[in-house]
Every structure is written in structure tokens, then in C-alpha cells.
Amino acid sequence: MFMIDAASYQELSLILTALYVTKALQCFASWFKRFRQDTSLSESDKRLCLKVLALATLFWPIVLPLSALEKRLCASPYEGAFRH
């Protein structure tokens, strides 16, 4: 069994936090770029979209694995068999 001492745990925690922040900023930058390109939104829609964008950036590491797990658990072995 693999044991992690306190120093290694802190290093691992720091690395994972840095990866989370880096990926969150990358996602936000990508989504924000696409958001800025959309010229069809009203001012109230833009405010709402910015709020959703901020929440999506904060919670993507939680939602994405849960979504993948849900998809895997609910998938039928015959899913896609009748698609053309």
C-alpha cells in the first residue's frame, strides 16, 4: 500500500490546486472569448451570461466528473445500436 507523508501530501495538494486554477482560468478565457464575440445579447442577457460563466468556471471540476459518471452508469449496452 502506498503511504503519503505530510510533506508529500502538502506538495500534492499544492500541485492539484495549481492545476485546478490553471484549468479554470483556461476555461474561463475560452468561454469569455466566445461570449465577447456574441453581439446578439441584450444587456440583461449579458449580465446573466457572465454570472453563469463565473459559476461554470468555479464548479466545472465537480460537475464534469459527476456528469461522466452519470453517463457511464445510465448508459445502456445497446445505446447507439440503432443510430444511423
Structure description:
It contains two helices and no strands. Helix 1 packs across helix 2. With 84 residues, it is an all-alpha fold. The termini are far apart.
- Overall pLDDT confidence: 80
**SSE succession:** HH
Total helical segments: 2
Radius of gyration, in Å, reads 19 Å
Oligomer class: single chain
Report the sheet with the most strands, covering strand number, pairing sense and barrel closure. Answer: none
Q: Calculate the terminal CA-CA distance, rounded to whole Å.
A: 48 Å
* Form type: flat
Query: Hey, roughly how much beta strand do the residues contain?
Result: under 5%
Number of strands: 0
Q: Look at the helices and sheets and give the structural class.
A: mainly alpha
**What are the segments in which pLDDT stays under 50 over at least 5 consecutive residues?**
none
Helix content: over 70%
Give a quick summary of the entry:
Helix content is 76%, strand content 0%. The chain is mainly α and 84 residues long.
Topology:
Blueprint: H1 6-37, H2 43-74
Helix pairs in contact: 1-2
Question: Which features characterize this protein?
Answer:
single chain; 2 helices
